[in-house]
TrEMBL record:
Gene behind this protein: Phospho2
Record: residues binding substrate: 19, 99
NCBIfam families: DKMTPPase-SF, HAD-SF-IB
Designated name of the protein: PHOP2 phosphatase
Keyword Transmembrane: no
Family affiliation: Belongs to the HAD-like hydrolase superfamily. PHOSPHO family.
């Protein structure tokens, strides 16, 4: 009996958007209007690439970025929740599927000593170039019309589950914890025994309730959370059942 916990990262594990938090490193802690207005819907990764070039051009170094990123606050109750999962790893496999990037997530999890809680992290690959500029790439290519160009979380989840099955691992239930519009696609892939846990007041919760109003509700159970302690209480019930 094993549960799979799937976490989004921004506004779920951390209480901010890691990509916009990095702007604190910019001159006067803001981006020029031209750069800010260059974002095109569905093309966030390319936009962040331009932000990183701007930071690099302004002499922002890796260690300064790292210092800034490790001050990002965790969502209320999240430190307790991740501690609880870490103590019960024999019951939980735990992955992150995020539109952030490998460098930011790695820094933040390692600084708080939570990297061992997660079995895998699926996010946009990032590295520092020879000139010291952070570069980021799309996670993969996909054909899903609902998702941003660089990442379909349903595809990531499906491929992970297929790979686990090949290794002989299947899950009693999947618990999907997220907040954003791009979390709806994987939630719609979940089965009736699975659980979607949207963050209260955020886009994912609104989209799930809209579907219910349109009489095409998601197949899985839905449990809303506002503090990660709500998630922890729910997981404690699950493992008692």
């Amino acid at each position: 009996m094993k549960f799979l916990l799937v976490f989004d990262f921004d506004h779920t594990i951390v209480d901010e958007n890691s990509d916009t938090w990095i702007v604190k490193c910019a001159p006067e802690k803001k981006l020029p209007n031209g750069l800010r207005n260059s974002y095109r819907p569905g093309h966030w990764t390319e936009y962040m690439g331009r932000v990183f070039v701007y930071l690099g051009d302004n002499g922002v170094k890796e260690d300064e970025m790292k210092r800034t990123m490790t001050t990002i606050p965790f969502t209320a109750g999240m430190v307790d929740l991740l501690g609880f999962i870490g103590k019960n790893k024999e019951l939980f496999d735990c992955i992150i599927v995020s539109d952030s990037n490998t460098v930011f997530i790695d820094w933040i999890l390692k600084a708080a000593d939570f990297h061992k809680v997660f079995d895998e992290v699926f996010t946009n690959p990032a590295v520092f170039s020879s000139t010291g500029c952070l570069t980021v790439q799309n996670f993969h290519a996909h054909h899903c019309a609902k998702c941003p160009k660089n990442l379909c979380k349903r595809k990531v989840l499906k491929e992970f589950l297929d790979k686990q099955l090949e290794r002989g691992v299947s899950y009693t239930q999947i618990v999907y914890i997220g907040d954003g519009g791009n979390d709806l696609c994987p939630v719609m892939f979940l089965k009736k025994d699975d659980i979607a846990m949207p963050r209260q007041g955020y886009t994912l919760e609104k989209k799930i309730s809209q579907l219910a109003q349109d009489l095409s509700p998601v197949a899985c159970s839905v449990v809303v959370w506002s503090s990660a302690l709500d998630i922890m209480s729910y997981l404690k019930l699950l493992i008692k059942e």
